[in-house]
Amino acid sequence: MKNCYKRFGSRFILNTTKLLVWWFFNVGSERKYKEAIERVNQFAMEVIKSKETQIGDKTNEDLLSRFMASSWEMGFEDEERRKFLRDIIISFILAGKDSTSTALTWFFWLLDGHPHCKHMIHKELSMLMTSTHHIHPLNLTFDDLKNLHYLHAALSESMRLFPPVPINSRLTVDDDILPDGTFVGKGWFADYSAYAMGRMERLWGSDCREFKPGRWLDDNGMYQNFDQYKYPVFHGGFRMCLGKEMAYLQMKSVVVAVMHEFEIEVVGGGGTPEKMVEPPYSLSLLLNMKNGLHVRLKKRQQ
Ligand code: HEM
Hints:
Layout: H1 2-25, H2 28-52, H3 63-70, H4 79-113, H5 115-131, H6 142-146, H7 149-161, E1 167-171, E2 176-177, E3 183-184, E4 189-193, H8 194-197, H9 201-204, H10 244-261, E5 262-266, E6 281-283, E7 287-289, E8 295-299
Antiparallel strand pairs: 1-4, 2-3, 5-8, 6-7
Helix pairs in contact: 2-4, 4-7, 4-10, 5-7
Bound molecules: protoporphyrin IX containing FE (HEM).
């Protein structure tokens, strides 16, 4: 045992020394890391420059153009302020891109294993198409998408079982007592798992492991929200996801566009109740699907 500690201790010291040397001389993974950060920063700066030339152009209605136009009086020409804007862009890209694509991956996997839910979404889409006189799905308005209650419910249900951010942590700056009386000391990590919470019988009932979009609908088929502390998929409280509504909008737009055009068949079968027992996830910061989602697309007869 003593030897084991000795070996572990010397390996730890060796690794730490190696990293310090790399950091000091700017070589190895330290150098790669800095180069990667520089590349990401450059990318964001180029995005800012390209938008800058179009400020005032009313046809530019993307999020960044609007953000820049509305806050230009803050003086983003200034170098330091530009860096601030750059960091905002990077945080939006990092926070918003992989989270929504991860959510959609599990969603399409689950739909393939639940034909009834797929049918319900098609039914809702075809009602929408009729009411909008068969407008192209890419031209649907915010309100059109907002009214897709079943789709909203199915996305929420999919993220309950497969939350894109499965575990989240906080580091305490001071001693604290949680509402249930649990003591948390200064410098401790407090973690919660949205994945585990989404599968708790105490919170979601005995059918907690089933994919049932209906639990999010009231008697009139209208979407009903649950408490953010019961469903912390977008975190809760002050630091809750700023892009939640936008994420739903994005995901709904993608689902409508794809499902309107194609039949999606998951290679090897999708998330049936049997397959959901041992879902193919690989854990990282996000709940990725192991080996990705392989599908066959077939053009739908309109
Ligand atoms: C399904 C999609 C998404 C999920 C599940 C999700 C989830 C989360 C979670 C759990 C957090 C809290 C992270 C933490 O503080 O530890 C967060 C924060 C954040 N999210 Fe999202 N997010 C999604 C999409 C988006 C989109 C599309 C955007 C922007 C366009 C976005 C912007 C942000 C920002 C800016 C924060 C930081 C908020 C703050 O710290 O005050 N998210 N998100």
